[in-house]
Amino acid sequence: METIVENISNAFLQTSWLERFSVLCGIIQVLLSKNNKVSNYFFGIMGIVSGMYVLFGAKLYAEIALNMYYLIMSIYGWWYWTHNMEARQQPISSCSAKDWQVVASISLLGFGLLYLILEHVTDSDVPAWDAWVSATAWAGMWLLAKRKLENWILLNISNLFAIPLLIHKELYLFAALTTFLFIVAIFGYFNWRKLMVTTK
Known about the structure:
200 residues; mainly alpha; 9 helices; 82% helix
């Protein structure tokens, strides 16, 4: 444990100001999401854009493609939260059977597509692991845009697999961030459930 903490500290000192800015925006974004604030998307978009620039410098082109999806979903979520009358009248709700069908489709089809790309087009040594983390995060982002309570569950399924993956890749700063996001998502779920009950 002491070694992991020391590695996280060293990793933070070695990161660029842009990478730190991206991580900071990610932290602010999830805290605002927990409190059902539409401004979460502003910080999410800034974090994604700055993060893509960092990833480009590291030549992680597949990760850039995944972040493009997050960017599109963030823009859509911002629009949906601010311009959709139904979303304003009932900001938080639970998933319907149709929503779960979409979640299953995004997760399974996304996993299959990403796995094939990572396995046959890239030099990834963890294609299934990486594909699962991304596919479940995609589904969680879609639910977040729809203000569905269960977005926190999907995002934490992704986080649960992402933490050991990031440690495996020795990306300790991002592993620490993901651990923080995992904890916040637990509180986010219960906070959203409380908000959903009080607005009924």
